[in-house]
Design brief:
The chain is α/β, with parallel strands linked by helices. The chain folds into two domains: about 150 residues, HAD superfamily/HAD-like (Rossmann fold); about 60 residues, DNA polymerase, domain 1 (Orthogonal Bundle), CATH 1.10.150. About 45% of the residues lie in helices and about 10% in strands. Keywords: Carbohydrate metabolism, Magnesium, Metal-binding.
Length: about 220
């Protein structure tokens, strides 16, 4: 039986949400709009750039605004960043167990490559699925279905890790056992949109129970 771990990127493999929030605030402020933490969490976090900028700046080219925002993000990220606590150990276990590994993200490809390089995992994942490369990004299930197809695994044999509403909706709609990462949203918020469970990070003791699904202990 092939099994897989499917990971969102921003806020899941590394804690980039403070950088994104700061850069979004700057982009909006440059256009005379102020956004709060709550607005960011409710209306921006996890969404595709094209959708965000088309909605809030309809008189501008969404791609141009997105390019501006993401260049600023990559400049702040730099060449080195810390992975989410416990991630290296989880990846090592997955490799020992023979579990397949994929990243599923709404981030632009340049950002995805920069983030994976910054945490030293540029060559760790068999597949990196980019929402912009598909007909539908998250919250549609297509990104996760595409990852499962590329890895040759069934949804019932996948665990997905997500930190955003749109990501949880995408993974759960694709049929993956979806675990929310509480890097931005609460347990209640993540469960409300479909998470089967939540963890603080990959060092959370609760994670081991969920991994047993892939070893056959939990049917």
């Amino acid at each position: 039986m092939a099994a897989a771990l499917l990971f969102d990127l921003d806020g899941t493999l590394l804690d980039t949400d403070p950088i994104h929030a700061a850069v979004f605030r700057e982009v909006f402020a440059a256009r005379d709009r102020e956004i709060s933490e709550g607005f960011y969490a409710d209306h921006i976090h996890g969404r595709l750039n094209a959708d965000i900028f088309a909605e809030y700046f309809p008189d501008e080219d969404p791609q141009a605004v997105a390019d501006e925002k993401e260049a600023a993000f990559r400049a702040r990220l730099g060449d080195s960043a810390a992975p989410m606590p416990g991630l290296p150990g989880l990846i090592s276990r997955a490799q020992r167990e023979g579990w397949r590994l994929a990243v599923v993200t709404n981030a632009p490809r340049l950002n995805a490559e920069a983030m994976l390089g910054a945490i030293g995992m540029a060559d760790t994942f068999e597949a990196v699925v980019i929402g912009d490369d598909l007909r539908h990004g998250k919250p549609h299930p297509e990104p996760y279905l595409a990852a499962m197809d590329r890895l040759g695994v069934a949804a019932r044999d996948c665990i997905a890790f997500e930190d955003s509403r749109s990501g949880v909706e995408s993974a759960s709609a694709a049929g993956a056992h979806t675990i929310g990462i509480r890097s931005t949203l609460s347990d209640d918020q993540l469960r409300h949109v479909g998470a089967a469970a939540t963890i603080a990070d990959f060092e959370d003791p609760a994670l081991s129970t969920h991994l047993e699904r892939l070893t056959g202990v939990i049917p």
